Amino acid sequence: MDLNIIWFLLVGVLVIGYAILDGFDLGVGVIQLFTKNENERRVNINSIGPVWDGNEVWLLTGGGALFAAFPIVYATVFSGFYLAFMLLLTFLIFRAVSFEFRKYSETAKAKQIWDYSFAIGSLGPALLYGVAIGNIMRGVPIQIIEGKIVNEISFLGLLNPYALLIGILSLVMFTMHGAIYLTMKTEDKQRHKLIKWANSLWIALVVLYFVSTVATMFAAPFLFVGILKNPIFWVLFILLLASFIYVPVALKSGKFGHAFIASSTLISMMIGLFALSLFPRLVPSSVDLNLHSLTIYNASSSQTTLETMLIIALIGVPLVLIYTIFVYRVFRGPVKITKESY
Asked: Is the pTM for the entire model greater than 0.85?
């Protein structure tokens, strides 16, 4: 295993960490859109109030790791997806300010406006992340000509049916994850509602995952080449299947913490299978898969940079992990609304 592979795995771990942690934040936001009771809305917001900004550190860390290890990929993706990323940032900004603005709003109408800002600011990213992944999976129109990247990605081109399908899959997955998280933070009637939400979304996710897998066979057949011969695939697939099966079982038996672990495992395995199918590519080219794709080797930093940044990452990432665990231990248990609450 060389440094390029280690960094591929490290970036993958950071993406998984972000998807699990900020994923339920986004899911809670989507659920807020359909929550009518004021007290339940406050519970939703306060369930993630102490942790949401810490969860987004994983996004910054993942982006920084991508920039450090694979700067060509960072530059290509961020420039090609520029308008999409600006839209994403707009959603995230409105989502961030909605917490404080809602808290200090004095009228029901104003609170409702910031509730919608929170909800739409969560729904947008949950959809756009999937759209971005869907485009990476099918390949994007890039070429390597005389050592330079020629980028022909357009915003409208990103909104193709396959990518939108993966976007909807992402949205449903994060919303289910958020509903399961809320079962650990709520009680009584609200918890029963969320159990129904989680079970319904689980059914939708199973159907969408099957449909998207079939669609991927046609949109990106290269992802399946040789995959069945890889023993790692079978480990990830079995864990994915087990987590899919266990989510409704845990919900029915009232083991909400176990259901959340199963949901987190499900997300991890989905991303893991995607990364395994993609490896060693990072950005497949729809022009010529073999000639113009960006890989962990032709798009990486120098070995010296990879070594130096790995030392920094081995110090920084554990600190982020320790901080995250500490915060979740402090704020564990159902939400209690007080005067200081959002």
From this structure: yes
